[in-house]
Amino acid sequence: MFEARFQSFSAIPDPALGGPRLELLRAELARLGLDGFVVPRADAYQNEYVPPAEERLRWLTGFSGSAGTVVVLRERAAIFVDGRYTLQVGLEVDTARFEPINIVDRTPDAWIAANLAGGRLGYDPWLHTREQARKLAAAAKAAGGSLVAVEPNPIDRVWTDRPASPCAPVVLHPLEFAGEAASAKLDRVRAALAEARADCLLVTDPHALAWVFNIRGGDVAHTPLPLGWAMIPCEGELQLFLDHRKLAGDVRAALAEVASLAEPAELETQLSILAATGATVRLDRDSAPDRLAGVVERAGGIADVGADPIARLKAVKNAVEIAGSKAAHRRDGAAIVRFLAWLDREAPAGQLTEVAVAEALESFRRDSGLLRDISFPTIAGAGPNAALPHYRVTTATNRRVEPGILLVDSGGQYQDGTTDITRTIAIGAPTAAMRRHFTLVLKGHIAIATAVFPAGTTGAQLDPFARRALWAAGLDFDHGTGHGVGSYLSVHEGPARISRLGHTALEPGMILSNEPGYYRAGAYGIRIENLELVREVPTPAGGERPLLGFEALTLAPIDRQLVEPALLTPEEIAWLDAYHGRVAAEIGPLVDAQTAAWLAAATRPIC
Fold it and tell me: Where would I find the Peptidase M24 domain in this sequence (predicted)?
């Protein structure tokens, strides 16, 4: 009935392959005179989603998560993951060969310092930022050893069937969706650069490249990125480094109006020429490879490693982008509601699987005719699989949807906006424990949604709002409460986020997720996620500071079956009823009569 076009459900590699591949790598390290090597889950741009040719960590270990690091020594190897993946790593990796370690408990640097015991530790300088390289160097030194840059990457020598590098066409992102011409954006970037007293910005983040030049591409999955680089000087000619095979005539002509075009292979030469003048070059601390910082310094320039000013400019959406996001969310909301109504009809028969759920949801989105891609592989977790926050269903793990809980986290990429939504759905009658845990998570979601806070507040200050009810019950979740979201760009966008590590002040126009959760290992998982637009709110009489709050962009019902009203305050019930009233009013006219009737029932008042 349904099919998936933007995602596959192929089984993960056999964990048993990790052992032989580990020995191949160790043999190559021995040939190079190395005592160890660090394998990050990264490419030269520090992308979250990387091309298949850059999936070195996955090839070596089988781990399919979006973040992780492996350290290989002569006799030991460890894989470091965060709280999202502590269960997943045990399923995908041969833990007899790769010791799994939660990065909260011990960092790779600390482990290296304790276990390297002298010798030469190798790293690929293209895959680590300057700060990451410095930490590795300090750890190696603490162990009596040294850090050694290695090119080419030793894994590439033993990965015999490594895929080719991507070469997808670059396309222009029209002004009707961007809302601002590339020339105007570049003027703003140059002004910010001058304020930072840098002579040139080296653009190493493809998201920044795409935004500032109003281009999109297809070099990585689910995020419309063109991989490339740019040099933006305070004065003089801009240089854009893109594979010319990606550029059709109209795209080349449009880009040539704002920058000179060169091949990526020319970047180091041009960067050296600039640095030889003694220029101060701003490099993004989060994405610039250590290799390029070294190029600047060796040529006589100053490598000014800091914040890329484009990140904040990109995070604050303009009026056109905000209007586009709202349109995308209405369209996406209609697809979600059609999906939920379908699920309510089909699930009782007991024939659905996680794969069928993911395929159906993608199909409902595609019915709009405007879906360009999904924004990440759909997480459709039934029962205990829902307890894996970043679970990816495969043909090997595919569970039948049975009575209990189904967690579905998904999103769409449309030219006018990027969406991300999680709904936790009761299949059959939920238990009292499920209802209690769901309602505690809902209380945290509402606390964020209704928060009013002074301008200058950071996500770290708001994060406890989402956890208060869970903390009071002795519970918590091991991921951030929210992340930034791009405009037809990454579903996980910096620099702002709602988490313990979110130290960027929130500003009107930013879009962030609101997604507290709770996960009972081996049983079920719960997460409720909406995207929220930061907006100004009126300062009450007598108030002394400008205030901000959130406006929900996501429009889809929250499962009333899982709500325990006795645990909600009257104000929380009023919020839920008002939110459901808005969903019914805005999405009801966009769906067929049968679905509209289902929606009316799903959004009726709690009491």
Answer: 326-536
- Position 607 in a domain: no
Total domains, the chain: 3
Could you list the beta-strand ranges (E) of 125-279. Answer: 145-149, 171-172, 200-203, 215-216, 229-233, 239-241, 260-262
The last residue of one of the domains, among 264, 279, 314, is: 314
Answer yes or no: is 335 within a domain: yes
Which range has the worst mean pLDDT, 86-100, 324-338, 474-488, 508-522?
Answer: 86-100
Residue 269 CA to residue 430 CA, distance in Å, equals 63
One-character DSSP codes across 346-400 = HGGGT--BHHHHHHHHHHHHHTTS---EESS--EEEEGGGGGSTT----TTT--B
Q: Looking up tokens 């459709």, which residue turns up?
A: 380
Structural domain span for residue 598: 316-602
CA distance 520 to 251: 50
Give the closest residue to 357 by CA, choosing from 329, 334, 380. 380
pLDDT band of 607, cuts 50, 70, 90: confident
State how far the Cα of 430 lies from the Cα of 447, in Å rounded to an integer. 24
* Boundary of a domain, candidates 271, 292, 314: 314
Alpha-carbon torsion angle 351, 356, 358, 362, nearest 10? -120
Are 179 and 224 contained in the same domain?
yes
Do 226 and 333 share a domain, yes or no? no
Strand order in the sheet with 417-418: 373-374, 412-414, 417-418
- For residues 446 and 593, state if they share a domain: yes
What is the b/e burial string over 358-377, where b = at least 16 CB atoms within 10 angstroms of the residue's CB?
bbbbbbbbbeeebbbbbbbb
Judgement on whether residues 527 and 577 belong to the same structural domain of the protein: yes
Q: Are 213 and 258 in contact (CB under 8 A)?
A: yes
Among residues 335, 289, 355, the alpha carbon closest in space to that of 45 is found at: 289
pLDDT tens digits for range 403-456: 999 999 999 999 999 999 999 999 999 999 999 999 999 999 999 999 999 999
Per-residue confidence band for 86, with pLDDT thresholds at 50, 70 and 90 = confident
- Mean pLDDT confidence for 369-388: 96
Token pair recorded at residue 374: 């999904």
User: Would you say residue 2 lies in a domain?
Assistant: no
